[in-house]
Amino acid sequence: MGVGIQRPQLHTEARQALLPHSKEAEAQHQRVRIVSNKMFVNNVAPKKFFNGQVVNVN
Predict the structure, then answer these.
(1) Which superkingdom does the taxonomy of this entry point to (predicted)?
(2) Cβ atoms 25, 40 nearer than 8 A
């Protein structure tokens, strides 16, 4: 039996919503990380998950 990480529901929903944007940035050979409800591209957070939708931070 394995042990898995249990994330809060908000983080799971944010990850699912940000994933298409993440794949698009990775296709352009950029470094992408998703931390909590924010997506970092080359250490800058251009998008975040807020109130059930993805919004631009700028």
Answers:
(1) Eukaryota
(2) no
